[in-house]
Design goal:
Structural class: alpha/beta
Strand order of the largest sheet: 1-2-3-5-4
Amino acid sequence: MAAIYLKTEHHALAESSVQARSGPRFTSAVSRGLRESAIIALAIVALVLFMALATYSPDDPGFSFTGTSGAVHNRIGVIGAWVADVLFFLFGWPAFLFPLVLGAACWGLQRRMRTATSVSRANTLVRILGFALVLVASCALTTLHWQPGVLRESAGGVVGKAVGVGLASGVDFLGATLLMVAAWMAGLSLAFGVSWFTIMDRVGAAAWTGIGFLRARWSSSRDAAEGRERRQARKESVESAQKKSATRAPPRIEAPAPVLEKSARVERERQVPLFDPPKASELPPLKLLDDPPPREPLYSPEALEALSRLVELKLKDFAIEAEVVAVQPGPVVTRFELRPAPGVKASQITGLAKDLARALSVLSVRVVEVIPGKSVMGLEIANEKREVVTLGEIIRSKAYDEMHSPLALALGKDIGGAPVVADLTRMPHLLIAGTTGSGKSVGLNAMVLSLLYKSTAEHVRLIMIDPKMLELSAYEGIPHLLAPVVTDMKQAANALRWCVAEMERRYQLMAALGVRNIAGFNRRVKEANDAGKPLRGSRVHILGVAYKRDIDDVRESPALDILHLLRSRGAHISYSDPHVPVLHLDGLDLTAQPEDTDADCVVIVTDHAAFDYTGLVKRASLIVDTRNALKNFLSPKTVRL
């Protein structure tokens, strides 16, 4: 038992001695004091070494030079001069790395004090080797690329000359430079723990941040410059607009058209007959037409001027400079006369008609590119309140009364309020078209009434065709109708066919007289009557005894077509028959008359042998033999049917 007790006690004493040796020899306060003293000492040594190197003078005494008899220039004295000369002689300009590494050691000690981390000897040895690699690579690179300057050896000292020149002789200047750069970067990573990839990432991020910052600054500066330019442009535009508005004259606002001048017919019809009924050959009285309502002012001059300025502003929104020089208010639309700026095409304004209507909040805008007699364009905008234009106002006007054409048409008023009267004879083809509710029926009735109030039935005859049986039925029974209002399409075809035949007849008559229109034909007839030599058409005489069977034969024979053709050419047809007083031939009602011995053409409609045809046949220039009555009388003038 005693032996066991002694063994146990000896083992405990051994463990306590080991723990005493492995435990800290200094307290934490002493350790902190020692580290702070080391940091201060290293910092002072680094500062003294830096001052010695910075104030180095080649004239001071040192390791490589005995110096001059003058004073020492080094701020650290003779020792500083010696230390600087030794370091510059051995390492050249990279000798400044020594105070730098001492400063780095101070920073490392201070950092370990805060983090309370321990550093192994192997780690310290690696860092020292890394610094040595950085120092040697720096000396070699300095020798290869720098001039020595005030140094007695090369810029990299003896070490740099030995390493740099030796490598350059073996791998050339570029190879030596690349190898030393790689060694310098590796030594820096080992000595100071620098991560080049982190540096590249941070440099790249900083570069992109700098690029973004520059872009933002450039964009903001560009926006600011653009804003300044726009503000300056707006300021100049406002100033120029103010100057222009101060010097320019307001748009000329033309006064609305006065009340239409009445014709002399209105004055004549003021005296109304009380007891005498109107005659059929007279024109309808004007009192049947309504008087126009009293005229109300549509726009004030201030409103028209404001509207003209609005038009200019809306055109300016579309980059078109134009000036409203005049405003012409009308009964239905108001026209603004625009003077475009130089270089503005008319097509540019025309293409903006719908956009201008939308911008001005109106239904439609019409652009008039050319106004006769003016060097401006027109912009027509519909009035909010339209003036009522009555037919009686136009028919009572002096313009309608002074038109001598029997086919005068009252169409309404123009944009200025003046009456518009047209001549139908100058419209060989007139078509009235439009959508539902656009006023076709109103325009057609106004034209018909214009004809009725201008000419009597002696001068104008009408054929009215009304398939709907609603539009023209009100004109039934007027003396101007050549036939009742046609509502059946078959009868309409006959009426139109008669019109074609009448047209051909008139063409033949005009060609025979050498004229081109009805006015020339009437003038030739008047001249002939005034000269006492009236014009005479062809004369046709129908001869024969008209039995019933003969009449049926005539109706079905080509002679009837010849009679219609001769009648359409204006020929005068006569008839003689002692037995039948009246001959009815499909629209031809002929009364028996004495024989026309001066007839140009004789038509024989029967083979009755009780008459002597010799006298007529000898005088006629053409004989139409329908029943072979002249079989014993042959003549080159005879035509047998």
